[in-house]
C-alpha cells in the first residue's frame, strides 16, 4: 500500500501542469503520447511484433502541429484531421513493403498504438481548448485518479467478489463500485466549488468517468497480460511506466472531451 | 489477357453508378466497405486472426449515418467524426475482454480493416459531396483503372525489368511507368473535355493517381501474400473479390478528396 501512496504523490506535479494548462499541458500530452507509445511498442516487441516508432512519432508531431497551427473552427481543421487518420494508416501499410522483414501485425500495431496512445491522450489538450468548459479538463484526472485510489482502498478493505479474474485477478466488484463512488464524489466536489452552474453535469461525468476509467485500466491489463509483462515501463522506479499511470486517462480524456462538445456545447 | 478484358467490362455498370452519383454512389461505397472488409477478414482468418466483423459493420453504418445526417460544415461534424475514430478503436479494444478467446491481433486487425477498407472507400462519396469540384470523383476511377489497364498492357508488351519481385513478381518498371502515363492521359482528357478551367490540376491528379493507385495495388498484394491467398474473394467468378477490384481505389479516393479540399477549395 505504501508503494501505492508514494506512486500517487509522484503524480502531484501533474496537477501543477493542469493548473497552468496551455502550452505546458499540450507539451505534457505530447510527451505522454510519444513515451507511452514507446512503452506500448516495447511490450509488442516481447510478442515478436515490431511496430514502427518512427511512424508514430511523426504522426504525433503532425497531430500537435495541426492542433497548434490550424484554427479548430475552420473547414481546414476537419480536413487535415481526416488526412491525419488516413496518413497514419497509409504510412503503416507502406511500412510493410519491406516484405521479408515485416508482418501485417507490425503495421496493425503501429496503427493501433498511434490511435490508442497518441490520439487518445491528445483529447486532454483538446478538452482544455474547448472554450468556456475548458476547465473541465480537471475532471479527466479527478475521475481517473479518484476511481483508481478509491477502487484500491475499497477493494483492500471490503473486496470479496472477483470482478474479472482472468484479466486482472486482484480487482473486486466492491472495489469497482467504490471506484465509481470515488470518481463521482470528487467530480461533484469539483462541480460544487468551481462550476456550480453545471453541477449535475459534473456528477454525470463523475459516474461515467468511474466506469470508463476502469475500462481503460482493464484494456491496459489485457494488453499487458497478452504481452506477458507486469508493467509497461519503469520510468518512475518501482511505479511502472507512463502508460501504467495514464491507462485510465486515455479513456477518461475522450469521454470528457466528447461530453463537452456534444452535450454541453 | 481475355480474363483481364472481361474483368474490365464487369466494371462498366460502376460507371453508371458514378454517373448517377448521389445516394446510389453512397450506397455503392457503403457496400464496398462492408463486403470488402468481410473479404479482408476472411484473409486474416487464414492467418488465425479473428477480426470483429460486427464492430466493422456497426462502424460503417455509423460513418454513413454521420455523413447523411450531419451537416459537414458544422462543428458537430468534426466532433462526431473524431468520436467515430475513437469509438472504433475503443470497441476493438473491448472486443479483447473475452481474454481466453482473443488475441491483440484480433483487435488490431479490426481497427486496421475498418480504417483501411471502410474509411478509405468512404472518401469516394466524400469527394462527390465536396461541392463545385464533386465531378472530380470520376478521376478516382479514371486514375485507378487507367493505371491498372495501361500498366497491364505496357508490362505485357514491353516489360523487362522487375519492379518489386518479392511483393508482386509479375510487375515491371515499364508497366509501372505505362500505368502512370495511362492515368495521366485519361485524366488530361477528362480535364480537357469536362473541366478545362482546372486542366492543369487534372493532369497533376493524373500523375499522382498513377503513383498512389500502384501503391494501393501493392499494399493489397502485401496483405494477400502474407495471408497466403491469391485473391481476396470470388464475388465475380474468376475475377476475384471486391477488394481485388478496388484495391487501387482505396488509395486514389483519399488522394482526390484531399486534393480537392486542400489544393482546389
Question: What does this protein look like?
Answer:
- The structure is a homodimer of 265-residue chains.
- By secondary structure, the first copy, chain A, is mostly helical.
- Chain A is built from 11 helices and no strands.
- The first copy, chain A, has helices spanning 2-10, 12-20, 22-46, 53-69, 75-94, 104-128, 137-158, 173-194, 199-227, 242-246, 249-264.
- The interface between A and B is large, with 54 and 54 residues.
List keywords for this structure.
11 helices; homodimer; globular; mainly alpha; 75% helix; 265 residues
List the helices and strands and how they pair.
2 copies of one chain form a homodimer.
Chain A: H1 2-10, H2 12-20, H3 22-46, H4 53-69, H5 75-94, H6 104-128, H7 137-158, H8 173-194, H9 199-227, H10 242-246, H11 249-264
Helix pairs in contact in A: 3-4, 3-6, 4-5, 4-6, 5-6, 6-11, 7-8, 7-9, 7-11, 8-9, 9-11
Measured between the Cα atoms of the first and last residue of chain A, the distance is 41 Å
Low-confidence stretches of chain A: none
For the CA atoms, what is the radius of gyration of chain A? 19 Å
- Fraction of residues in β-strands of chain A: under 5%
What do the pLDDT scores of chain A average to?
93
Count of beta strands of chain A: 0
The residue fraction in helices of chain A comes out at over 70%
* Major sheet of chain A: none
Structural classification of chain A: mainly alpha
Pattern of helices and strands of chain A: HHHHHHHHHHH
Overall morphology of chain A: globular
Q: So how many helices of chain A?
A: 11
Amino acid at each position: 500500500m505504501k508503494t501505492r501512496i508514494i506512486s500517487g504523490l509522484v503524480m502531484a506535479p501533474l496537477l501543477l501542469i493542469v493548473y497552468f494548462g496551455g502550452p505546458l499541458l499540450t507539451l505534457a500530452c505530447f510527451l505522454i503520447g510519444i513515451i507511452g507509445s514507446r512503452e506500448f511498442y516495447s511490450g509488442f516487441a516481447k510478442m515478436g511484433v515490431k511496430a514502427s516508432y518512427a511512424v508514430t512519432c511523426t504522426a504525433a508531431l503532425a497531430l500537435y502541429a495541426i492542433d497548434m497551427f490550424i484554427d479548430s473552427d475552420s473547414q481546414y481543421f476537419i480536413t487535415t484531421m481526416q488526412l491525419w487518420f488516413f496518413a497514419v494508416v497509409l504510412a503503416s501499410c507502406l511500412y510493410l513493403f519491406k516484405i521479408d522483414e515485416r508482418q501485417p501485425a507490425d503495421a496493425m500495431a503501429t496503427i493501433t498504438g498511434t490511435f490508442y496512445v497518441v490520439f487518445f491522450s491528445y483529447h486532454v489538450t483538446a478538452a482544455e481548448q474547448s472554450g468556456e468548459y475548458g476547465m473541465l479538463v480537471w475532471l479527466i484526472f479527478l475521475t481517473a485518479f479518484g476511481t483508481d485510489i478509491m477502487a484500491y482502498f475499497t477493494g483492500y478493505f471490503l473486496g470479496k467478489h472477483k470482478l474479472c479474474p482472468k484479466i486482472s485477478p486482484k480487482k473486486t466488484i466492491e472495489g469497482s463500485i467504490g471506484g465509481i463512488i470515488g470518481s463521482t464524489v470528487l467530480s461533484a466536489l469539483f462541480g460544487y466549488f468551481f462550476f456550480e452552474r453545471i453541477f449535475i453535469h459534473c456528477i454525470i461525468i463523475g459516474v461515467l468517468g468511474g466506469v470508463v476509467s476502469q475500462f481503460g485500466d482493464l484494456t491496459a491489463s489485457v494488453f499487458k497480460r497478452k504481452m506477458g509483462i507486469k508493467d509497461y515501463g519503469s520510468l518512475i522506479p518501482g511505479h511502472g511506466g507512463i502508460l501504467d499511470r495514464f491507462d485510465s486517462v486515455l479513456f477518461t480524456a475522450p469521454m470528457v472531451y466528447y461530453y463537452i462538445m456534444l452535450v454541453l456545447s
